[in-house]
């Protein structure tokens, strides 16, 4: 056995640490359906899953009668470059299976929400208060993005000061601001932030998406926002596109 160096009382220390977790809010025990959706999300935003520590929230499937193969779920998530480390909210049997699959029981773990501030917004001459995400970090791009190029602002907003051409992709965990023609794909709230928004001075996108809800160019935009300054927000599971008066 190796000896401990003189003056060293212990070869390691244990200290408190905090970790921000991405939460998977599981809504089905059908792993084939989940695999299809994960593959689609990963194809749309290849950098979205990048060895992220993951909390599996089982509250929505706690009472479902169909069994959940926890070991297969963990393997599926790892294949998609996610690192499941803990679970919460499941039935006793589900939590037992989660622990057996190597996950920690974390009933008190709370995914971190983006910091927000209250602002006043005028919509159709009605003043209301809304919650707008305030990112602690923002990525700034000041050069045009060509077809095939992708920019991803992990953990914050994305601000683009030049044209986003067809075939280019701009992605952010927060909101996306494009102060130029937006003609490619734009994804805001890439990791589930439903308060994220999309702003642009010229809306002509191939695809717009917020927190997984998307709309493609096949569904033509209304004339009052197409090619004009506009804002996109999420209302429930519906994308709302509104003109911006400049």
Q: How would you explain this protein's 3D organization?
A:
The protein is mostly beta strands. It folds into two domains: 22-105, ACT domain (Alpha-Beta Plaits, 2-Layer Sandwich); 116-243, Pectate Lyase C-like (3 Solenoid), CATH 2.160.20.70. The protein is built from three helices and 17 strands. It has helices at residues 31-44, 70-79, 92-100, and strands at 22-25, 52-57, 82-88, 104-105, 116-123, 126-133, 138-141, 150-153, 157-160, 169-172, 176-182, 185-188, 198-203, 207-210, 213-216, 230-235, 238-243. It has a six-stranded mixed beta sheet with strand order 7-9-11-13-16-17, with no helix packed on it. Strands 8-10-12-14-15 form a five-stranded mixed beta sheet, with no helix packed on it.
Task: Please outline what is shown here.
By secondary structure, the protein is mainly β. It folds into 2 domains: 22-105, 2-Layer Sandwich (Alpha-Beta Plaits); 116-243, Pectate Lyase C-like, CATH 2.160.20. 13% of the residues lie in helices and 36% in strands.
């Amino acid at each position: 056995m190796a000896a401990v160096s003189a003056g060293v009382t212990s070869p390691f220390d244990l200290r408190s640490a905090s970790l921000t977790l991405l939460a998977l809010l599981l809504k089905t025990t059908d792993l084939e359906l989940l695999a299809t959706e994960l593959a689609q999300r990963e194809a749309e935003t290849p950098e979205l899953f990048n060895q992220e520590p993951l909390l599996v929230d089982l509250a929505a499937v706690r009472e479902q009668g169909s069994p959940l193969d926890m070991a297969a779920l963990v393997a599926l998530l790892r294949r998609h470059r996610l690192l499941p480390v803990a679970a919460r909210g499941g039935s006793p049997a589900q939590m037992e299976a989660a622990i057996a699959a190597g996950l920690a029981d974390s009933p008190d773990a709370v995914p971190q929400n983006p910091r927000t501030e209250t602002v006043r917004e005028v919509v159709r001459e009605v003043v209301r208060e809304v919650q707008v995400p305030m990112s602690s970090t923002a990525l700034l791009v000041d050069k045009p993005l060509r077809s095939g190029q992708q920019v991803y602002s992990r953990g914050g907003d994305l601000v683009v000061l030049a044209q986003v051409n067809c075939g280019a992709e701009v992605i952010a965990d927060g909101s996306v601001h494009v102060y130029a023609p937006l003609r490619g794909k734009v994804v805001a709230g890439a990791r589930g932030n439903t308060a994220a928004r999309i702003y642009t001075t010229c809306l002509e996108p191939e695809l717009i998406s917020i927190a997984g809800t998307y709309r493609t160019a096949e569904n033509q935009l209304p004339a009052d926002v197409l090619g004009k300054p506009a804002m996109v927000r999420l209302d429930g599971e519906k994308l709302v596109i509104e003109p911006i008066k400049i």
